[in-house]
Design brief:
6 helices; mainly alpha; single chain
Length: 197
């Protein structure tokens, strides 16, 4: 388990591009997506005990709460649904299927509006089921990022066998690769070989 993202959230490897992590609560979403490192064959949510350990380490579940196979499946589905939407952020296109899949994956995270006596309001998870609360926390992070204008800058690398989530801090928000030296270079080499063939 790697905590090389600078925020103590465990990921399945180090960011190939050595990018700074996403801002605010969007870091949680980024770390969740990066629990899978396809190239290294590491999945921090691979089994129910591993999923429970990651969720506890990320302070999403208390202590060493046991996670069932169905709960693990719900968290993995959430991760992959998020990755699908992040691919659309990278490609700059809309995908109704990816958006619908994420909407369905977030549905168990029931939300409520908490009103502050001083006049403020905030979204809170309104469920007592542990995994529903986890999903609710992720939903809140996505909603906060969308409101702050940072959600669309969280992207998924299109590199073969990659999918690493990275935060695009470029002024034009046009970054495509987790790392130009790794996935970007591989893509250029494949394109070059394709032109020679």
């Amino acid at each position: 388990m790697d905590v090389g993202n600078g925020v103590g959230l465990p990921t399945a490897g180090r960011d190939p591009g050595s990018r700074a992590p996403a801002p605010g609560s969007l870091r949680l979403v980024q770390a969740l997506v990066n629990t899978l490192n396809v190239e290294a064959g590491r999945d921090l949510l691979g089994t129910p005990p591993e999923a429970g350990q990651w969720l506890a380490t990320a302070a999403l579940l208390p202590g060493r709460a046991a996670v069932t196979g169905a709960e693990r499946h719900a968290v993995v589905e959430l991760r992959e649904a998020i990755r699908g939407v992040l691919r659309t952020h990278t490609g700059g296109h809309r995908d109704l299927e990816a958006a619908s899949r994420l909407t369905v994956a977030l549905a168990p995270g029931r939300m409520a509006l908490a009103i502050d006596p001083a006049g403020g309001a905030r979204l809170v998870s309104a469920d007592h089921e542990p995994i529903s609360r986890v999903i609710g926390r992720v939903a809140i992070a996505i909603a906060e990022a969308a409101d702050a204008g940072t959600w669309a800058r969280l992207k998924s690398c299109p590199g073969a066998a990659c999918g690493w989530a990275f935060y695009d801090r470029s002024p034009s928000s046009k970054s495509q690769w987790c790392s130009m030296q790794v996935c970007g270079a591989r893509a250029k080499m494949r394109a070059y070989r394709g032109r020679l063939a």
